[in-house]
Write a structure and sequence with these properties.
- This protein is of the alpha+beta class and 512 residues long.
- The protein has four domains: 146 residues; 48 residues, Roll (SH3 type barrels), CATH 2.30.30.60; 81 residues, 2-Layer Sandwich (Alpha-Beta Plaits), CATH 3.30.70; 172 residues, Jelly Rolls, CATH 2.60.120.10.
- The chain contains 16 helices and 16 strands.
- The strands form four sheets. It has a five-stranded antiparallel beta sheet with strand order 4-3-2-1-5. It has a four-stranded antiparallel beta sheet with strand order 9-16-11-14.
- Helix 1 runs parallel beside helix 3 and helix 2 packs across helix 3.
- The chain is elongated, with a radius of gyration of 40 Å.
Amino acid sequence: MIDDELKLLHELLLKLGVTLTLAALLFGVYYYMSRKRAQKVPGYFFATYIVTLSLYVLLILNESDLVEAVDLWEGVYLWTKFAAYLGTAFYLLKAADLLLVEDYLIAKKGVHIPQLVRLLLVLSGLAASALLFLRTVMGINVVALVAIPTAATAVIGFALQDTLKRFFAGLMLGKLIRVGDWVCVAGKEGRVVKVDLGHVTILTRDEDQVTIPNNIVVQQDILNYSKPTTKHGRTALVEAGYAAPPMQVQAVLIEAARAVPGVLQEPSPEAFVVAFKDSAVQYRLKFWIKDYVNMLDIEGQVLAYVWYAFQRHGIEIPYPQRTVHMMPAPDETSLQASRRERILNALRRIEFLSVLSPENLETVARESQIQVYLPGEIVVRQGDVGREFFFILEGDADVRRGEGQATATVAALNPVQLFGEMALLTGEPRSATIAARTRLEVLVISKEVLARPIMDNPVLAERIGGILAERKAEMASQQERASHRGEPAPDLAEQSKTFGSRIRKFFGTAAR
């Protein structure tokens, strides 16, 4: 008798152990897959899991002769078994959805399967399982279940017609939009955050949530900014004065747009003349972006870069001719004096200009210009002919050498440093490309500005040449110490004479 009870107890514990182990494994797979995707496990999943496991434990106890307290009626037993099997089918279908559909087909193969289709597959599988269990477990003729009276069918279909329209419209939308796409639907622009059985939910730029029924969405024009690619063209209208040549304005517009972070280099920005207006020529600047989320910020940056570029090139953005400005005139004398004093202070810090007389220095200050470059804009290009040099007042710049993909940043320039003097004074091509790293304010001194002092006093060429030779010798010495090469020191006197000769020749004073 005791042996029989021990045997029954062993069988009961074995069944419970196997059931709990399988249940734990199945739950572990689903929980792991959910955590892997950083998705929260829904509450109904826990509830279904606990109910299904409890039903299996109840069935095992009922089938065991050792536990007499659990004795279910036959009908209750069959329905309990049906519910337990249906819960198991649900878990198996969800596991197949995660492993086969989401992990393999979507993640690895790149197949687009809308969330609605996945839900429909699970529900269809669950319905088929229910019919199978009704026939095998309950012994119910499932054919009789579908013989619903025609009148009842018509009433239910009429009552659910809007729901059915939204459901099937949701299936169609899976091919048109996905979660994460930026779209414009029914006059609402935003990012798609949810596409369910009945509605599409959009989050606008103002962080407002808009929910639109699926059947309304499919009847509207859908503008998807994320398909077929994330590349998107934008257009800005800009006006410039009639005094500026159109080809020059178009080149300045393209160069300014190319320098803006977020504007694609390929395809390159384009500029066209649109119309001749009453007060100005209107231009269309077209550029492409990839980050549609920051579209408004990029457009604003493009217009800001255009303004600074126009200022540097002396291109006017005119006021309407019919507008009368009654603003008080600023104190031009004070502004000019402050500007000239700032330029003079900068010129006095340039070593090779220290040989100029105060009168010549005043002349250079009066005819020099201050220009501003924004981050990413090119100041000079490697290989170009130089007709001016630059003294940095504010900001930082990068020195780049090379062409195409081989371009590399080799040095940095900071305030009070200058560049381009060799190209200006000797006619050499630019040896490097200088690009603004931050907002860059520079003092620009052209060949024409320096020509008059040098033409009036050719001896200045020799003195400037001597200072340039010293600077070049110092740079060569620093490079030699950095590379630990034992090369002989350059002949400073010879280099000074050479620089002086090249300066006189470049400025047309060689014969004097």
